[in-house]
Amino acid sequence: MLMRRSTRVIFHVLIILCIVTISLPVLITIVISTQSPAEVYTSPPRIIPSNHLSNYVAAWNSVTLGRLLLNSFIISIGVTVGKILLSLLAAFAFTHFEFRGKNILFFIVLITLLLPIPVRIVALFQVVSAMHWIDTYFGLILPFLASATGVFLLVQRFRMVPVELLDAAKMDGVGPMRYLVSILVPLSASSIGALTVIEFIYVWNQYLWPLMATNTDQMRVVQIGIKMMIQAEAMNNWGVIMAGVVMTMIPPLVVFYLMQESFMKGFALASEK
Amino acid sequence: MQSYFKNRWLPYLLLLPTFIVLFVFLFYPAAETFRLSLYRVQAFGLRQKFAGFGNFVSLFHHPDYVASFLLSLLFSACVVVIGLFISLLIALLLNQKLKGIRIYRSLLLWPYAFSPAIAGAVFGFLFSPANGFVTSLFASMFGVSPKWLTDSHLAFGVVTAAAVWKNLGYNIIFYLAGLQQVQQEAVESASIDGAGPARRFWYITFPLLSPTTFFLLIMNIIYSYFGSFGLVDVLTQGGPANGTNILIYQLYRDFFVNSVTGLAAAESVILFVLVVVLMMIQFRTTGRRVYYQ
Question: Which of A6, B72, B178, B249 has its CA 20 to 30 A from that of A218?
Answer without folding.
Answer: B249
